[in-house]
Amino acid sequence: MDATDAAANQRLPLIAVARRLPQRLRGINRLGFALIFLIPSLVIFGAFVFYPLLKAVYLGFYETDPFGNQGDFVALDQYRTVLTSESFRHSLWITFLFALYTVPPGILLGLALALLANQKLPGISIFRIMFSSTVATSVAVASLMWLTLLNPSVGLLNYFLVEAGQPRIDWLNDLDWALPAVSATTVWLNLGLAFIVILAGLQAIPEELYESARVEGASDLSVFWHVTLPLLSPTLFFVSVVGTILAFQSFGQIHILTRGGPLDATTVIVYSIWQDAFQRFDYGVASVQAVALFLLVLGLTVIQIRFLERRVFYQ
Questions:
Q1: How would you label 175-187 residue by residue, b for 16+ Cβ within 10 Å and e otherwise?
Q2: Do residue 254 and residue 140 come from a single domain?
Q3: Residue 277 class from Cβ within 10 Å (0-12 exposed, 13-18 middle, 19+ buried)?
Q4: Are residues 34 and 95 in the same domain?
Q5: Rounded CA gap, 197 and 218, in Å?
Q6: Beta-ladder partners of 70
Q7: Within this chain, do residues 10 and 122 fall inside the same structural domain, yes or no?
């Protein structure tokens, strides 16, 4: 090999790098262009999500004096004290009961209404509007409506009880009925969202599958169990995850209807955080509970994804 060939061979890698350089520069330009559009979202998330979360973790390491001022650094002692306290265990239990009373009934009722509204009947669009109307109702308006319905003297529910020969029930002040009453309000409030999502999932199922099942002689129950439910499982999985998160974050209806009573029978974790932070001004204790709630919701979401997603059928 002469000197000319050797020099040419040495230039080949340089030429290859030079050809790749414009592609890499274009990739960097695209990344920078994308970051320009991401910056507003990153700023908003940083200000309203990441910073408050880090601040809550930070405040959990400090005691708070009776005036709400940051006190002594106590490391993990405050976390240990709050998370092992009887009041936290009680609010945690109430929160789990509240989620149990709201999420499964909300999914089942939303599924039933979606199946009904998915029928091709005259005037069915009117029922679709009625079933989905709660999605446009604010928490305050819904709570005031149910506050009137549950009124022990003039409430419509007690009117029906009296007409049926049953005694009146003080729904929101009875230890046995307060949590179910607030849960019923929450189910009604979140029903519109569940209905819309499930109805959209039903309408996305190909009609050819139903026709094939009917040709094979399958009954309506068999079609629902073997066709509708498997193809609807991704939608139901989504509604389950979102419903659980909404249940653990519920506050407005509890504050308006019961204020956590009677005797803390409806004091979920979110309401306990509000009481500690804005009534007792104990920001350290409230921050510990907020961090615990974040980890709890995150853990439940991961568990749902890991275990429930195995039963989800993706087309």
A1: eebbbebbbbbbb
A2: yes
A3: buried
A4: no
A5: 27
A6: 64
A7: no
Q: Residue 29's domain spans which residues?
A: 3-50
- State the Cα–Cα distance between residues 311 and 232, nearest whole angstrom: 11
- Parts of the chain with a pLDDT under 50: 3, 5-9, 12, 14, 17-18, 21
Give the C-alpha separation, 5 to 78, whole Å. 75
How far apart, in whole angstroms, are the C-alpha atoms of residue 287 and residue 277? Answer: 8
CB neighbour list of residue 137: distance below 8 Å, 6 or more residues apart: 189, 192
Same domain, 241 and 96: yes
3-state secondary structure the chain: CCHHHHHHHHHHHHHHHHHHHHHHHHHHHHHHHHHHHHHHHHHHHHHHHHHHHHHHHHHCCEEECCCCCEEEECCCHHHHHHHCCHHHHHHHHHHHHHHHHHHHHHHHHHHHHHHHHCCCCCCHHHHHHHHHHHHHCCHHHHHHHHHHHCCCCCCHHHHHHHHCCCCCCCCCCCCCCHHHHHHHHHHHHHHHHHHHHHHHHHHCCCHHHHHHHHHCCCCHHHHHHHHHHHHHHHHHHHHHHHHHHHHHCCCHHHHHHCCCCCCCCCCCHHHHHHHHHHCCCCHHHHHHHHHHHHHHHHHHHHHHHHHHHHHCCCC
CA angle 180, 182, 186 (to 5 degrees): 110
Which pLDDT score, from 0 to 100, does residue 7 have?
A: 47
Q: Nearest-CA neighbor of 277 among 50, 82, 77?
A: 82
Q: Are residues 146 and 10 in the same domain?
A: no
Please state the φ and ψ torsions of residue 260, each to the nearest 5 degrees: 85, -10
> What pLDDT was estimated at residue 26?
54
pLDDT of res. 93 = 96
CA distance 61 to 53: 13
* Co-location of 151 and 227 in the same domain: yes
